[in-house]
Amino acid sequence: MTPAPESALAAHLHGIVGALRPELVAIRRDLHAHPELARTEKRTTRVVADRLAAAGLRPRLLPGAGLLCDLGPTGPNVRRVALRADIDALPVVDRCELPWTSTVRNVAHACGHDVHTTAVLGAGLALAQLDATGDLRTAVRLVFQPAEEVQPGGSIDVMNAGGLDGVAQIFAVHCDPKLDVGLVGTRIGPITSASDEVYVTLTGPGGHTSRPHLTADVVFALAQVITQVPAVLGRRLDPRSGVNLTWGAVRAGAAPNAIPPTGSLSGTLRCLDVRAWEHASEVFESAVREVVRPYGVELEVRHERGVPPVENDERSTAVLEAAARDVLGPDAVTLTEQSLGGEDFAWYLTKVPGALARLGTRTPGGHTYDIHQGDLRVDERAIEAGALLLARTATLGGRHEPVETVR
To answer: CATH no. for residue 332?
Structure first.
């Protein structure tokens, strides 16, 4: 999968992670078979904590679920680098049809968090071996974070518990089933989108469909909100900000000849630009009110802030790229597009610099899957690639001198 490493440390890491590979694959399969939803990840936390403790480390459990684990040197001149994994699963039926398919009804690791967890665990175990021989000069914090799949995300819980205290830089990977295994997608600046949830509820006197003029027709008004509000946002916010309003649920009525007294909409509002995101709530609510004004309905609007865009720091991105080339080969790095997906890793980057990379999980020449789908399959060589990438990133991130970005 990977060419010969380019540095002695990279070669050493290859040897360590290669020896761990069978165990890491087994752990990933175990996690995949026993997925847990946001803020219920107690078994996952225990599996990771037990393995770290067996390596002589001292994991610190977070309230509810998740954990932190520090390793490496300490002292006033030592930089601490964090490696983050999200550990929760999705309310999705697992259709991967493999021996390690989910044993939990309607819950599946359909976003690759089992791979993220195992990659950070593998990186931590490899770095612990470097530390034991005096070869680790970077202080490292492993962050196994719950509740990424809910908004505003478990990263806020981690920060509230002191997860970023003393951290100078933070890194993460996210599975990308459109990239071949062994490749790493990077991007300076925004790599994901802001993602919020929006809710609209309309009420009014219902009535017979033969007399709509005597009612406040919430169904018709909802239809106007569905079609007109996205267009208003496109004219009130900078089109370069990539604003996208998509409705996911519409509820109103049960009979074809009765106008119901209430109806509701819910959807997601996404922005590629953080500045547009900061103004989107005000513009959205104003647009809904203006659109429904002629129809005499009562209105309730709720805009729940989710996550800002993940904005990759230039220097941190350079560290990831240098690490990828060192352990995965000179052609391992590819420029990735900005996604409209949300990722709560963004909250960490509002406090400290860092970067997120796309980790290839597609078997070369194989089928291209999609995340958040029950049939997702990953090439398990991505676990080794992710562990190598993150371990080498941590050692490079500990340097004070800049790392050159090659484009």
So the answer is: 3.40.630.10
Closest to 73 (Cα-Cα) out of 407, 299, 398, 307: 398
pLDDT mean over 134-152:
96
pLDDT digits (tens, 9 = 90+) for 327-356: 999 999 999 999 999 999 999 999 999 999
Beta-carbon contacts of residue 224 (< 8 Å; ≥ 6 apart): 291, 292, 295
β partners of residue 304: 197
For residue 237, what are its two tokens?
Answer: 């916010």
Helix, strand, coil share of the chain (percent; to 5): 35, 25, 40
Q: How far is CA 168 from CA 59, 290, 302, in A?
A: 20, 46, 36
Cα 22–chain centre separation: 26
Tell whether 156 and 252 lie within a shared domain: no
- Phi then psi dihedrals of residue 311, to 5 deg: -110, 105
In 3-state terms, what secondary structure has residue 258? strand
3-state SS assignment for residue 259 = strand
DSSP string, 341-362: ---THHHHHTTS-EEEEEEEEE
Position 2 in a domain: no
Residue with the two structure tokens 């547009």: 276
CA 18/CA 126 separation, integer angstroms: 10
Q: What domain count does the chain have?
A: 2
Q: DSSP string spanning 186-253?
A: E-SEE-S-EEEEEEEEEE---EETT-GGGS--HHHHHHHHHHHHHHHHHHHS-GGG--EEEEEEEEE-
- What residues contact residue 375 under an 8 Å CB cut-off, 6+ apart? 95, 96, 97, 369
Reported as a single tens digit per residue, the pLDDT across 123-138 is 999 999 999 999 999 9
Tokens representing 76 are 């006033």
Residue with tokens 């996404």: 270
Q: How far apart (Å, rounded) are the C-alpha atoms in residues 120 and 71?
A: 13
Q: Which of 241, 217, 187 is nearest to 298 (CA)?
A: 217
DSSP-derived secondary structure letter, 83: E
Q: Which residue has the higher pLDDT, 77 or 117?
A: 117
The parent domain of residue 65 ranges over 8-192+309-397
In tens, the pLDDT along 18-29 reads 999 999 999 999
Of 170, 168, 122, nearest in space to 143 by CA: 170
pTM (two decimals): 0.92
Beta-bridged to residue 244, according to DSSP, are 270
